[in-house]
Design goal:
By secondary structure, the protein is of the alpha/beta class. 39% of the residues lie in helices and 15% in strands. Helix 2 runs antiparallel to helix 10. The N terminus is likely disordered.
């Protein structure tokens, strides 16, 4: 796993019963079946304390910021506390944390700000493996004369071709945009190594950690990345996004904003009134993970330590589920698995798995499973460069299963049974 200062251990306890009790929506029934939420990459379910935090904000702090009265002061504190919580998750300082509508919007805002500092002939390096939200905002700068280069993948295991990346980095490269983990095949990219390569070439690096954040710890300091972005609704929080940026870079680049808005970092990047009730939910989502960590490691003292302890318990648990799933999939004749399938390399992937069956389309399969209470996704999941590269875009893309730590081995068994039933019905 390409995360500095994190040593995975399977010895940490993991209380799946307690975890599932925290998520009220897991009680949903579909056609008499218990819902199996295997759709995590498109958005996870949220624990009760996130719901409670949003409601509490409306009841006790619903006002705009910097007013001379109680609820406004409470809103200031809600935002400040959430910024501190995300700083612990990123391992950075609170003034390096920017809230925004979502990762896509944040990336477009930052690309525009950086883009007006670039000149004709400057280069940006993108990848075939990334979600389009870490591709199109940067590719749009071609309108300004910026040269866009694209790193290819190794088709056999759906990993980035680092030789190709190295050959395309040069003295004209100004920024490398890379995903921490693929939202379609689960590949975990060696972002620490790529950051060093980018910096050696004199380029900045922008890491999309949206898909990685539910599956492993983030250490912005150890990575030495320039920017990193994630979306809370992918790791048990509300629908918002958050950016980490090195403070001197947040000060260097100038955001597009209205004139009365502050010029102070990081608030100057947060255009308009934020969705403050959801920022309260962000804080609660981080605290949920910290609570999970404290349950698995009683010695954790700080919130950062508790967050690392949480991942020390969830990473091995998710890998057990993913191993069971992939072994079951590879036993199905004619199934095409995309991504790393060798158990000896599962530390290079997270528990997101995509495949195609020899019969039926991904949409037909997702519908069949959905009627049985098994929620999966079909299509390209905005990783269109990837599905086009592998020739499946015109055939409906792939079927994606995304496991997170509230899922169970029994749900994996239900899925595998459903796949066999689907094939038998064709």
């Amino acid at each position: 796993m390409s995360t500095p200062a994190f040593h995975e251990t399977a010895s940490q306890s993991f209380d799946i019963a307690w975890v599932r009790e925290q998520f009220p929506s897991l009680q949903l029934q579909v056609n008499g079946y218990a819902a199996a939420f295997l759709d995590g990459p498109a958005g996870t379910q949220v624990p009760r304390q996130v719901m409670d935090a949003v409601q509490k904000y409306f009841l006790e702090a619903n006002a705009n910021t910097y007013g001379a009265f109680l609820t406004s002061r409470r809103t200031n504190e809600v935002i400040s506390s959430a910024r501190g919580a995300m700083a612990d998750l990123f391992n950075c300082t609170p003034d390096e944390v920017v809230f925004g509508q979502n990762m896509t919007t944040i990336t477009f805002d930052l690309s525009r700000a950086i883009g007006r500092e670039l000149k004709t002939g400057d280069e940006i390096l993108l990848t075939t493996l990334d979600h389009d939200a870490n591709f199109s905002p940067w590719a749009a700068l071609a309108e300004r004369g910026v040269v866009i280069r694209q790193v290819d993948i190794r088709e056999s295991d759906c990993t980035l071709d680092l030789n190709d990346l190295g050959s395309k980095l040069n003295s004209k490269t100004r920024l490398v945009a890379i995903g921490y983990a693929s939202n379609i095949v689960g590949t975990i990219n060696p972002v620490a190594e790529i950051t060093k390569l980018a910096h050696a070439a004199g380029a900045m690096i922008y890491i999309d950690a949206v898909h990685y954040a539910p599956h492993g710890p983030i250490d912005a300091k150890a990575l030495d990345c320039d920017f990193l972005v994630c979306s809370q609704y992918k790791f048990f929080g509300p629908h918002m996004g958050t950016l980490y940026g090195k403070k001197h870079l947040l000060e260097k680049f100038k955001p597009y904003k209205v004139r009365p808005a502050t010029d102070t970092v990081p608030e100057c990047w947060e255009t308009g009134t934020q969705v403050q009730e959801l920022i309260a939910g962000i804080h609660a989502a981080v605290e949920y993970l910290a609570d999970l960590g404290r349950r698995s490691d009683r010695s954790a003292k700080s919130r950062r330590e508790a967050l690392l302890a949480a991942y020390c318990s969830t990473v091995p648990y998710e890998r057990v589920l993913a191993t069971k799933l992939i072994e079951g999939l590879l036993a199905i004749p004619g199934l095409r698995l995309f991504g790393i399938g060798d158990p000896r390399r599962f530390h290079e992937r997270c528990s997101t798995v995509s495949f195609r069956l020899p019969k039926g389309t991904p949409t037909e399969l997702a519908t069949f499973l959905g009627d049985r209470g098994i929620f999966t996704w079909d299509g390209n999941f905005y990783a269109r460069n990837f599905t086009e590269r592998l020739g499946v875009e015109q055939h409906g893309g792939v079927l994606r299963v995304g496991l997170v730590h509230y899922n169970t081995a029994a749900e994996v068994d239900r899925l595998l049974t459903g796949l066999r039933d689907f094939l038998a019905s064709r």
